[in-house]
Each structure stands twice: as C-alpha cells, then as structure tokens.
C-alpha cells in the first residue's frame, strides 16, 4: 500500500509543479489553488507512504520520479526544450530511482 501512496504523492506533486508555471507569479487564482492543493495532497500521501517505507527512500523516489515526470510533461505541455546534457541528467536520475527501487533498503 505504501507504493500506491507514494505514486499518488508523485502525481499530486507533478500536477502541482506543472500548474505552478500557469499561476503567473500567483496572480491567477485557479492555478494557484491547484498548486496549493497539489502540495498538500502530496504531503498527505507521502506521510502515508512513510508508514511502510523509510523516509529517505520515500523522499528519494518522490523527488526523482517528480523531477523526471515534471520535465517530460513540461516538455510536452509547455513546449520547453532541454539540451542533451539535461536529458542525460534525467536518465541518470531515472537510473538512480531504479537503483533505489531494487535496493534491499525498503520493503515492497
């Protein structure tokens, strides 16, 4: 169940970060409300995930998955383009997330 909460936390965080750009410096109320609600929702889910997984593992997986997901979605949604170095970095982040997932440091 911890994995489900972790993934829901990642989804909430990703949607929140993607909406952050649309706030235009928090001058637009609807996107701003989505950002705040998304962050609160993410923390609630992450707190639940931490009941069954170590804090460091939850945080590392959450951050890594969110970084890669936000980058991919913003490339599609906002047409943001990154150079090859940034994409290599994303691959390294994804590899790190997979290494943490396969480690013996947490329960499945």
TrEMBL record:
Q: Assign the protein's first listed, main location to one coarse class.
A: membrane
Asked whether the UniProt record includes Cell cycle among its keywords, one would answer: no
A GO CC term assigned to this protein in UniProt: plasma membrane
The portions of this protein that span the membrane are 32-50, 57-78, 84-102
Keywords from UniProt, A to Z, are:
Cell membrane, Membrane, Transmembrane, Transmembrane helix, Transport
Q: Name one GO biological process term.
A: glycine betaine transport
InterPro entries, alphabetically?
EmrE-like, Small_drug/metabolite_transptr, Small_multidrug_res
Example GO molecular function: choline transmembrane transporter activity
Q: Does the keyword Cell membrane apply?
A: yes
Q: How does it sit in the membrane?
A: Multi-pass membrane protein
**Location of the protein in the cell:** Cell membrane
Q: Of which family is this protein a member?
A: Belongs to the drug/metabolite transporter (DMT) superfamily. Small multidrug resistance (SMR) (TC 2.A.7.1) family.
**What protein name applies here?**
Multidrug efflux SMR transporter
